[in-house]
Amino acid sequence: MKNKGDTKVKKIAFLGAGSMAEAMISGLVNGNLVPKKDIIVSNRTNQERLLFLNEEYGVEITDSKEQLISDADVIILATKPKDAEAAICSVKHLIRKNQLVISVLAGIPISTLHRLFEKEISVVRAMPNTSAAIRMSATALSASRKVTMLQLKFAKHLFETIGMVTVVKEQDLDAVTGLSGSGPAYIYYFIESMEKAAAELGLDQHIAKDLILQTLAGASEMLLQSEKNPSVLRKEVTSPGGTTEAGIEMLQGYRFDEAVIECIKRAAERSHELSILQEKVERKRA
User: Fold this and answer.
1) 67, part of any domain
2) What is the CATH number of the domain that holds 249?
3) Nearest to 106 by CA among 273, 265, 254
4) Would you say residue 7 has pLDDT above 50?
5) Average pLDDT for 243-247
6) Is this structure's pTM higher than 0.85?
7) What is the CATH number of the domain that holds 94?
């Protein structure tokens, strides 16, 4: 990785205006971390979506790829993975060697991005999650060899404005995708189940929701503040013959832990499958 370079930011360009782009924009703007005027957004066809982002967050929008790329120091690829090739094709001739490209596209490796851009550029792959909208994302980064230390430092700082960040080897991003990239959905699914159980027990919906969310928040904070691991904390609240033990026994009977493990492993495998699929598509076109 190179050590030279200047990453003083003039403008951040988002190519793509979907849920992840909005989550990042929301975190950056509502946290007063990046000036609205320094964020510009474009997408392929959805003008209504661009107008919404402009009205909601005050960011600049454009239909012109030249305007999007020309003043940007950082280009964030935030399209759907299936639209990546068309999106990159529309801007690859505009990319300059001193610009940093940050990709939040799941399952598309750096080598594929280089092939799509038809040159080796400075690329950082990022795997945030949608909690970026409230500046609570868990993000992993991996950098190409042309990325300077200052560029990586900037990318890390950028994602730190919307949560915590860790730098990993690219080969570990599939595991990260299955764990924290998709992780919020698993938690929401778990909460859905708790809400259904509360309803069957006759609890008021609003009361149940407040109790569930505070329970989850409290458990998370305990793990953050305590040096004890989860199994120890679990055992401390599981009295022999008590209510918690009865509930845990039901989870064990349904192999709850195995279901969670297989869930994360399958998501990671799917991320790897998407990478291989993209590479096969690229080889056929070569």
Assistant:
1) yes
2) 1.10.3730.10
3) 273
4) no
5) 97
6) no
7) 3.40.50.720
